[in-house]
Amino acid sequence: MNQRTRLSMIVIQIMIVSLLMALFGRLFYLQVAAGPKYREAALSIQSRDTIYPATRGLIVDSSGVPLALNRTGLAVTIDRLALDKQPDKGVAVLKKLARLLKLQYRDVYRKTRLCGELKVGNRSGCWTGTRYQPIPITKEANADVALQVVERPDEFPGVDATPIAIRNYPGIVGVNAAHVLGYVGPLTDSDLAGINGTTYYRSESIGKSGLEIQYDSYLRGIPGIRTVIVDRKEAITSEGQNTNSVPGDHLVTSLDVRVQAAAESALADAVARSRANGYRADSGAAVVMDVNTGRIIAMASYPTYDPNMWEKGLTVKQAEALFSETNGVPALSRPIQGRFAPASTFKAVSIMAAANAGYDLTKSYSCPANVKVGTRVFNNFESRAQSTASLKKLLAISCDTVWYQISFDEWLRDGGLSPIKNPNDYFFKAADSFQINQKTGIDLPSESAGRLPDRAWKQSWYDANKDFYCNYREKAAKSQQTQFLLLLAKENCLDGNKVRAGDAVNFSIGQGDTLVTPLKLTQMYAAIANGGTLWQPTIGRAIVKTDGTVLKSLDPIKTGTIAATPKTVKFLQGALREVIVSGTAAGSFAGFPVAVSGKTGTAQVFGRNPNGSTKDDTSWFASFAPSNKPQFAVVMMVSQGGFGSSSSGVGVRKIYEAIFGVVNKKVVPENVIFPNGLPTTLPKISPATKVKTIGAK
Amino acid sequence: MSLVTPRFNYHKNRSFFRGFDRILTAAVAALLFIGTLLVYAATRDWYAANGLDPEYYLKRHVINIAIGCALAWGTTLIDYRLLRAYTPIVWALGVLGLGFVLIPGLGSEVNGAQAWIALPGGFQIQPAELAKISIIVGMSMILSERGHDSDIPSNQNVIQSLVVAALPVLLILLQPDMGTVFIISCSVLTIIAASGASGRWVVALILVAVVGVFGAVQSGVIDQYQVKRLQSFVNPNADTQGSGYQLRQARITVGSGGLIGKGLFNGPQTNGRFVPEQQTDFIFTVAGEELGFLGCGVIILLYLTLLMRAFGIARRATDPYGRLVCTGVVAWFAFQTFENIGMTLGLMPMTGVPLPFMSYGGSSMFATLIGFGLLQNVHARQRG
Predict the structure, then answer these.
(1) Which one-letter DSSP state was computed for residue A613?
(2) CA–CA dist A132, A142 (Å, integer)
(3) What percent of chain B has pLDDT over 90?
(4) Is 0.90 topped by the overall pTM?
(5) Any idea where the domains of chain B sit in the sequence?
(6) Domains present along chain A, CATH in parentheses
(7) Using the beta-carbon criterion (under 8 Å), do A20 and B274 form an inter-chain contact?
(8) Looking at the partner chain, which of B45, B193, B345 has a beta carbon nearest the beta carbon of A26?
(9) Does the model's ipTM exceed the 0.85 cut?
(10) What is the Cα–Cα distance from A169 to A495, expressed in whole angstroms?
(11) Which residue from A270, A672, B9, B61 could staple onto A651, CB 3.0 to 4.6 Å apart?
């Protein structure tokens, strides 16, 4: 061996050793340093989880009567693994099944496809779970069909029928409560992408709206998971770990099915009555609240829908109907999403403002036919002209002009169009103490806030719209360029950020830009009834575990105090009683055996209906009872319902009739819904709880 | 020491096996044994799950080893210096085999390469495996011829040896089987370096190789699937269904084994058959998952032992022919092991190269065991 060969051999040897060392180093990195990462990657390749949904918790009313429970349905399911093994990938089986179930093959096909298997935009109805779990075609098969499928496995390979838990809203005593309860539905991609996305399991059903979504984390429970190890062909090779499901907790609400049912039928009646009187009456709301806690006893929205239709399988037609204008958009929850001018019901706030401004509430004031505010004349709307009367009487007859005068005087005192520094703003401040422009904070999703058109709001409105009004001729549509509107635009451009005299007087009678939800007005009247405390409205009372222990007690929350002295509140309560005794609601409540206090409201609405007709007035009635020891605040609103008293006033009376057990203008003690006051203890929870029978009819 | 006359040690023949390097034998035996277990582990569950004989591959693998061992034993019987006389025949047979696979109807295509000759009874042979031996002995023969005045091969010899290598390489390029070309090229380079030829040859050949690879990729001589494999090596996530999928699955399978592995026959990735070709080119992933870092470490140490012992035989060889043959075999084993495991671990691009002594596959098993026989032949004939 020569020198060069020797050297070469050494180099070759070093090279071979370093090659193997490189392998060794790489191996160490893969298996030890990065081992955990690859272990996880391997696990996600091999393991398949099947989710077994937990039994959803019940939603019950304050005496334990179920509002939402789980019913056993008969599901016809298919096994994708078995179906895919068919020579034609199961097409024949699905076609036969569709015929048997009287469904469209296209729908059945789509239901059995994983969403990822379908083209984007063509996925509605696709299966959101995995191919390892039974995929339901229907949850409501009848026993005959199910039997046919199970008994002929050769004809229906991979098809099975099993009992399945479906969410059910039993509608005891005719309760609907669709907007309050909400509904459950299969998890969607957007749910997974949302803030709670990480807490969900695929193929779980989750709350989609109302209480079902609000308390979903309690109601849902924890699903059981069966993990299997699969091979490349997705055949199961071994069983992984199994965890059992944990049933969801129950929700006890403050609702009462009897009051709820009464509120719903009273509202539907009111709407029907309005329509009979020639009004459009497109929608409505009714709320019953415990004035001392803010707890909701009933909350109705009109029009409504069947809360069970989701579990039955929503058709495209049904889905469209939910949002149809001509149907009054049943999907909207009017009590918390409908925003309307409160009209005369707002005069309660004006009384407080007047008291705070130093007006003597016991004195007499005049109620002329009209008041000249600057260059414009404002007429009395609801009432006839009165020479002079006590403020109490003027509230009872719903005089407008007295408030025009007072609010105009106060507006001038605050500097008019060139406001003084730190204006008194008695009217705005009184309204602000009710937190008009905030949400009430009720335990329901998608609540709307009201609108308090004070100086700050005016300024922000002006900042947003200045450009439009100052260039009205260019920006507005031709049809909108009437003489009057052009003038208005010019005015808005000039000083749209100012609270004008017209704004001030409109505000004093709850018109103009002021908006409240029916729930907000209920909260306001509850505060007047209880002496001035603003309670946050709540529906949930407690979360109770399946073993009966209380997991979480949902206590009333005080959110503020209204700007009124006890003396003012007392006066106001008396004045509101006078409305029923001798005022605008006297007719509606004639001979009613329980003392009720309240206020009618008839709000002018600007704008037009889809068919081009001008909008009818909003009918309001806000109240509390019994007058001497208030317990319930009841508010009804019928949109485009006409006069406050005739539509809503009568509706509210009907709700009180149910609560107090009034039959033929007499209290029937056996019919009183809460003979011992509102429930203070939590009920026992059972799906079988029945409504306490009401005695004589 | 110039021209060495063959010496025949007939008296040694009685204790012939004593002349073997026992540690080398032990390392190869251990690798064969572990390989057998891994082939069984890679195929057992999958075959059982699909209603086939779970021992199908095991049985065939054991038969392959038995035939390979017989071939190795046969290789050791005749003194390698006598074998040298048959070198041209061995070389010619290799080239002929490579020529056969390219004839349509005779050769069969697997994974995009026309590399197999189908034999009756479902057997196939891969001439490229045996061609490696042809090239090694052919080059060694020419490079060990020396003039009386020189201790190093003449330039003429180097050129001749390159021609000897180039013809079969060209035929393999036509299949194309880039992995084998790579391994042969590395071995050729090593043999030339070890022959004592001028360092300029080595440098020049490396340059030619670099330019050649670059030119081949640019000009499109290399098939699209080869380019794809190279791309998926650079970015394994680019092609999640084809070769990128294989490389990713291989890496995950090895990585998931961790320090001590999932235990033999207990790897879910292996039993789920997530890595294709797992009993052949990706056999090391089974070791990675089921035996873990410790088991793989032992396997690499066995290869290190094997290569170092074999290298020792090359160094101690008293004649240039024996030395060059052994060096060639060592280089072959080393580069093939590195390419295979390196591919499994994501260090090397994907090529269809089996792991010496472990992968399932007759041709490779026979060739590597013949290589082992050559090593023992040289070792056995160095004493006395």
Answers:
(1) P
(2) 25
(3) 48
(4) no
(5) 30-90+176-380
(6) 49-253 (3.90.1310.10), 455-498 (no CATH)
(7) no
(8) B345
(9) yes
(10) 54
(11) A270
